[in-house]
């Protein structure tokens, strides 16, 4: 289990469980008087993060950002109606790529427009004067959610998120949840998913978790294998449920049959767990890190793929509870990178093809040299694409790189991989066998990679950049 701060009296009903509470769940509970000034600051931070970001539950309710905008709209005189514009429908991504009024950090474009790229946009002057920590704590000044979100992105890009030498920060997880527009999830819903026992992907999960970041002592001091198993198993249930719900009703199976559970496909909060012996055994296996086998069925496509364990690891490391890590990880998979876990991972293969294409544009000499040695991105960059570079240590640098990716879109990971190749350029060109260097990338350095990636963006033709922004969908 990842260690959490000592529970405060005001959050007793949520922090009683070892997985702790999601930061946004506290907004629906009447808080008891805090026992200390430290707790008061924590509560203010949680409440302001609640106001600034996060979507509503997994249903169709509007996000909290949308609710804030609607509230502000009611306080302003209505603007004159605009003439209708015909636009092709387009899938929407996390809020880094959404297109609400003036939320200008998007790098997605409509089919009629060139995709927008990271850069200075309209911000809130009041938010610009505030530190990132204060902005997260106090929320958007004057209710300017759009300007405050853009200010957050620019502060992440220019100043970064304050953290210690181990990459730990009291602010980072809140910033991630806001930038991902993460849904509100009650702790009880997460616990209910755990109590369903092994998912159909449980056997594959157990075969991967013990190998997660094995050489990283920072990760293993903070995150237990049991915690990783629980999170991946809960996400696998969510993905499995969504797949079952999308099937014709005549072909649906009872999704809880293997664990002795009866469930509703409409809302995960309405889960009734039976008391059968098989269900009890399943819960015990899901909640502890043991070496027992699994009674669960073989994993179904689209519920778990090898490598998801590494992609989940930074969330558990940075989060203050499993629920926070769960909701952020699920949001990333389902809204930003669904193509990475769908079918034959077609999104990953598109990303690999784009690594080759981008490298040929920005450095033809290096591209031709690697091609002459039989080295394509499919050979050396598969883990880096799938895990958003989380497979390359050190972990604190991964967290800093993810700050940038969540601010402006995880699809920019393609450019970050090319940036690493550019940084290695002289060594690669000077090696008769560059494959040895590419088997294990040099230690990650977030700042040089970000600077190089931003320079690469300016060199991208609009059509190639449009492919980059949509490759993971």
Automatic annotation (TrEMBL):
This chain's protein is named Rab-GTPase-TBC domain-domain-containing protein
Q: Which GO terms describe its molecular function?
A: GTPase activator activity
Positions with biased composition (Polar residues): 18-31, 288-299
Its GO biological process annotations read: negative regulation of septation initiation signaling
What taxonomic lineage is listed for the species of origin? Eukaryota, Fungi, Dikarya, Ascomycota, Pezizomycotina
GO-annotated cellular components: mitotic spindle pole body
Q: Which residues form a coiled coil?
A: none
Native organism? Microdochium bolleyi
Q: Which domain of life is it from?
A: Eukaryota
Instruction: Give all residue intervals belonging to the Rab-GAP TBC domain.
Output: 166-409
Q: Which InterPro entries match?
A: Rab-GAP-TBC_dom, Rab-GAP_TBC_sf
Disordered: annotated segments: 1-50, 73-127, 275-299
């Amino acid at each position: 289990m990842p260690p959490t701060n000592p529970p405060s009296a005001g959050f007793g009903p949520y922090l009683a469980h070892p997985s702790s509470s999601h930061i946004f769940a506290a907004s629906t509970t009447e808080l008891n008087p805090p026992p200390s000034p430290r707790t008061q600051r924590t509560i203010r931070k949680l409440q302001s993060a609640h106001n600034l970001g996060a979507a509503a539950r997994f249903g169709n309710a509007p996000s909290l950002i949308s609710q804030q905008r609607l509230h502000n709209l009611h306080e302003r005189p209505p603007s004159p109606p605009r003439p209708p514009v015909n636009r092709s429908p387009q899938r929407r991504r996390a809020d880094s790529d959404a297109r609400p009024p003036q939320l200008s950090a998007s790098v997605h474009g409509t089919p009629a427009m060139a995709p927008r790229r990271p850069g200075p946009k309209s911000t809130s002057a009041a938010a610009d004067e505030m530190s990132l920590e204060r902005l997260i704590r106090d929320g958007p000044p004057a209710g300017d959610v759009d300007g405050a979100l853009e200010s957050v992105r620019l502060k992440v890009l220019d100043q970064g998120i304050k953290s210690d030498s181990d990459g730990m920060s009291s602010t980072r997880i809140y910033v991630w949840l806001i930038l991902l527009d993460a849904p509100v999830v009650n702790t009880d819903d997460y616990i209910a998913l755990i109590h369903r026992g092994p998912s159909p992907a449980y056997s594959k999960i157990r075969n991967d978790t013990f190998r997660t970041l094995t050489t990283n002592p920072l990760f293993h001091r903070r995150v237990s294998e049991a915690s990783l198993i629980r999170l991946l198993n809960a996400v696998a249930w969510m993905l499995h449920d969504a797949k079952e719900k999308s099937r014709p009703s005549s072909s649906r199976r009872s999704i809880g049959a293997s664990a002795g559970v009866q469930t509703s496909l409409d809302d995960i909060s309405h889960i009734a767990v039976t008391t059968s012996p098989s269900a009890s055994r399943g819960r015990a296996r899901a909640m502890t890190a043991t070496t027992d086998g699994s009674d669960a069925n073989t994993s179904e496509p689209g519920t778990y793929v090898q490598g998801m364990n590494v992609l989940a690891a930074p969330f558990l490391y940075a989060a203050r509870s499993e629920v926070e890590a769960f909701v952020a990880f699920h949001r990333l998979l389902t809204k930003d990178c669904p193509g990475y876990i769908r079918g034959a991972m077609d999104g990953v293969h598109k990303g690999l093809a784009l690594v080759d294409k981008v490298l040929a544009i920005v450095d033809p000499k290096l591209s031709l040299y690697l091609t002459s040695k039989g080295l394509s991105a499919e050979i050396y960059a598969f883990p880096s694409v799938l895990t958003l570079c989380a497979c390359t240590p050190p972990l604190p640098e991964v967290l800093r790189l993810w700050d940038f990716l969540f601010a402006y879109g995880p699809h920019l990971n393609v450019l970050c991989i090319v940036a690493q190749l550019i940084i290695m350029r002289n060594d690669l060109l000077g090696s008769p066998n560059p494959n040895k260097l590419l088997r294990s990338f040099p230690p990650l350095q977030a700042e040089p990679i970000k600077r190089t990636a931003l320079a690469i963006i300016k060199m991208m033709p609009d059509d190639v950049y449009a492919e980059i922004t949509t490759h993971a969908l």
